[in-house]
Amino acid sequence: MKIINGILALVFFCFAALQLNDLDPWIWISIYGAVAVLCGMNAFGHYVPKVVLGAILLTIFGIGWYLPDFIGWLQNGMDSITSSMKAETSYIEVVREFLGLVLVLATLGWLYWSGRKTM
Q: Which of 9, 19, 114, 116 could cross-link to 40 by cystine, CB 3.0-4.6 Å?
């Protein structure tokens, strides 16, 4: 599990670095960076369950915030979100951010589950 957490830490550090050209980089660098740090801490045996649970709750709130727009995107025919890096419609950026938070939630869920198994 240490190797998986180490790989996840590297992946989320890369995700954070890729946000430098975003319209709101500090938000996404903070989110992805926090997940990277938590994964790295867990890889080195430092599990902080209250912080992970707090991050899970914040992520669920964020997913709920974007959910109406995500549902609207689904109902409007699911325009491609990968055709270009530039967001041509308002849905593209929102859907990408929603899916990013889903990845964050899945990773935090993994951290919580794997951290509890090592305690």
A: 9
